[in-house]
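SAMPLE LOG
Freezer: B-3
Tube label: C17
Construct: single chain, 159 aa
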Amino acid sequence: MKACKCGSFAINNDPAKLLCDVCYAYECGRRDGYYQRSNLKNIFDMSCDIDLVSVNNKYCNRSYTLTKEYRAYKEMMSSLAAFHNRGKDASQGRIYFDATVYTRIDTDNTIKPTFDALEKIVYKNDSQIDDIHFHREKKVNERERIEIKVYEVDDEIKK
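STRUCTURE (predicted):
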């Protein structure tokens, strides 16, 4: 078992993402980045029951016309995000994105539509997203659900 920088041994052994259960430090082995909760400023928090859409259903007939399903999802998520983010400007800093989806759709197919829906509301552009923690849980009550937390990373504290 690997020890955290705080000295505890309560660390998740996933080599890509190590999360300490004691100090909640997040360590990303891909870039050797290291975030602690004090580095992350929660800028957005939202949970909603919504029928998730796959990026595979983005365009009609191999053209660049968005499908009705994709447009409806993006408009609904954008409206909900605008409601939850009212009174705040879109972040211009680096972003840590954390989401849980309750669905049977592949998680990799639900990421991009969600990023697109939150763009210009929570953050200026999805290119600001440095780290993504996106995972799937089993559906509850036969409804699809998404829980999103977006954090702005304080670069001055980042080690």
